[in-house]
Amino acid sequence: MKFITFTSIAIIILFAAKLSYPQSVSLNPNSLHVKTVSDLGANCTDGQIHDDGVPENGYGWIASAGDPSAFCQKFIPPFYPYKFSKFCINLTRTSAGTSNFTFKIVQWKCVNGMPANIMDSTTVTATGIPVYPSFAFYDFVLPTTWANVTIAGDSVFLGIRYNPVTMSAVYVGADETITTPIWPGWATTAAGPWQNPAVLWPTYRAIMFRAEGGSAVQYVHNYGVIDFLNLPDEFVKYTPYIVKAKVQNFGTSEETNVPVSFFVNGTQVGSAVTLSLPAGGVDSVGFPWTPTSTGSKTLMVVSQLGTDQLKANDTIRTVKTVVLENIYLIFCDHFQTLGNWTLTSTGTVPWSLQTAAYNNMIMPTTSVLPWMSCNVDAAGLENTSNAVATLTTDINCTNRDWISLEFDQDWYVMSSSDQAIVDYSTNGGSSWINLATWTTSHRSEHVTLDMPLAENRANVRLRFTAIQPSFDWWWAIDNICVKGYPPSGINNPGTSTQVNYSLSQNYPNPFNPITQIKYSIKTNGPVTLKVYDILGKEVTTLVNEVKSAGAYIIDFNGANLASGTYLYKLESNGFTDIKKMILIK
After folding, report:
1. Torsion angle of alpha carbons 70, 76, 80, 86, nearest 10°?
2. Which residues, in sequence order, are CB contacts of 414 under 8 Å at separation 6+?
3. How far apart are the C-alpha atoms of 123 and 42, rounded to whole Å?
4. Beta bridge partners of 311
5. Which residue, 14, 268, 301, 456, has fewest beta-carbon neighbours within 10 Å?
6. Is the pLDDT of residue 476 over 90?
7. In 469-572, where do the E strands start and end?
8. Structural domain boundaries of the chain?
9. Handedness of CA 354, 449, 554, 492 (dihedral sign)
10. Is the pLDDT of residue 417 over 60?
11. What superfamily would CATH give domain 502-583?
12. 111-149 tens-digit pLDDT
């Protein structure tokens, strides 16, 4: 039997003490283990979740941090008055520690974006905490007297306080997946002050705290819509969808034949669906919708109980974009290395891999270190007249139209003689076409540039040139991606163009519930493409047949799977590759 060989994942448990940040030690730094998560309790799966379900790390305090030390994360009530009724936490420990963990669950008032006075707390104990690298979720029902959030617009911080003097071997699960949006959180020792986890641990994205709740007032008639289900990141024009939402009867009375309606940009789509639920009952409702125009759309699902006593939770809304066709990610570089680039300079400052942000830098929030930069400020008056970063590998845009280049940047200049130049080539670098030339600052910007001559070309390359002869600052770039649409009528296209074996990162990622996987094979032969869960158990087979040489795209629908991390593996003619994708519902 052949087993999956997973990419090495070095897992580091970080410690911090008082004000000497960041003080860290490595636990099994050369580990090849894949993290495991034991499902204990409900895990607040219907509540507010800001992590992807899989911890990459664990955060804890050493004994000298003092009693009490704390972690917390921001939670925003969906309506008011609101009461949090359940709290969930992800935990692990070292073998030197006890398997039981006693701590306080605390709710802090949010003032100016930071934890302020304590609104409520309760003492609980988690039992049977697994030894790292295994993690487990634990959920706790909060007291019925738990403090309400009553003022519209208010937020709170939920988290834990505990004594690291006796519990220094216990760690809170942390999501460090680069694609997880950073969520506001705070950490503090007994001596204080509160500190941003992203400063203590630069790869922080979210602490694995979750919470559920509901109306702070018990009404007889209270019918509400909780959340959208299985909503794609983008909708495609003329493609049929079922927009689903979760509905709950929060009241104490059974309700029958309650109409629930779907709206797009304020106009009702289709007829209302009637739903009957007992007190406390939960169900889902679906609405057929085929977008007929592109652009931004405000989607709403509204419950319409005539006797409803709390209108604040009757409506959910979100803004989504309808695009012409499915757009595919052709190439992307997040600059973990500069192996794809040739760096030259006629001055003293070339492009380099930047592992720490500069003072006053304001990169977009989607950008995560490291990134590629030309930091002229580091050289003082000895600057550079021409620093060039040239992509040395071809981007294959065959069978793709409407090609575009996207990237994050912070371009900070002091003189009009400074230039930032973006070029592309359609012939492997023999000649270049200018995309943009900037002589003024472009701060914290996500750039999108069309490359019309790259359509259906196999040898597209990129070049970034910084001309900074004066005393200057920097040009920093991250998340360079090339995207394109398929020509009309083409799905899962093969191509006669000579290609190599490759397996691309799925797009979008994270996804819900559909994502696309692109792969190519160099010669005709058998191909298998399979999906596995994080423990290596096969979930589904997407491809198992003989294919002709070429590039292919296949859809993967995770509608029937739980949120989490999955692996997909391509095998063909001795070639094997594995990549990770994240499903978030």
Report:
1. -50
2. 470, 471, 472, 473
3. 20
4. none
5. 268
6. yes
7. 474-485, 502-503, 514-521, 525-533, 538-547, 550-557, 564-572
8. 14-215, 223-323, 329-485, 502-583
9. negative
10. yes
11. Macroglobulin (MG2) domain (2.60.40.1930)
12. 999 999 999 999 999 999 998 888 899 999 999 899 999
**By C-alpha distance, which of 271, 343, 261, 267 is closest to 301?**
261
In CATH, the architecture of 223-323 is Sandwich (2.60)
Q: Which CATH architecture fits 329-485?
A: Sandwich (2.60)
Cα separation, 267 vs 269, in Å, equals 6
What are the pLDDT digits (tens) for 218-269?
Answer: 899 999 998 888 787 778 777 788 899 989 898 999 999 999 999 999 999 9
pLDDT in tens, 70-109: 999 999 998 888 999 999 999 989 888 889 999 999 999 9
Q: Which residue has the higher pLDDT, 482 or 294?
A: 482
Which residues on neighbouring strands pair with residue 511, listed in sequence order?
Answer: 583
* Domains 329-485 and 502-583 are alike in CATH topology: no
Preceding peptide of 291 cis, ω within 30°: no
- 103 in Cβ contact with 91 (< 8 Å): no
CA neighbor of 478 nearest in space, from 339, 365, 360: 365
Would you call 212 helix, strand, or coil by DSSP? Answer: strand
Is the CB of residue 209 less than 8 Å from the CB of residue 88? yes
CB 394 within 8 A of CB 459: yes
pLDDT digits (tens, 9 = 90+) for 432-443: 999 999 988 999
As given in the structure block, the two tokens for residue 565 are 């991390």
In order of 264, 270, 273, 296, 577, the CA distances from 288 in angstroms are 12, 8, 11, 18, 38
Tokens representing 25 are 């030690």
Is there a cis peptide before residue 508, judged by omega within 30 degrees of 0?
yes
Mean pLDDT for the stretch of residues 517-530 = 87
User: Cα–Cα distances in Å, from 303 out to 255, 270, 278, 310, 571?
Assistant: 12, 15, 15, 11, 49
Residues 6+ apart with CB under 8 A from 2: none
Distance of CA 232 to the CA centre of its chain: 14
Lowest mean pLDDT among 205-214, 475-484, 516-525: 516-525
For 452, phi then psi, to 5°, come to: -60, -30
- The pTM score is 0.49
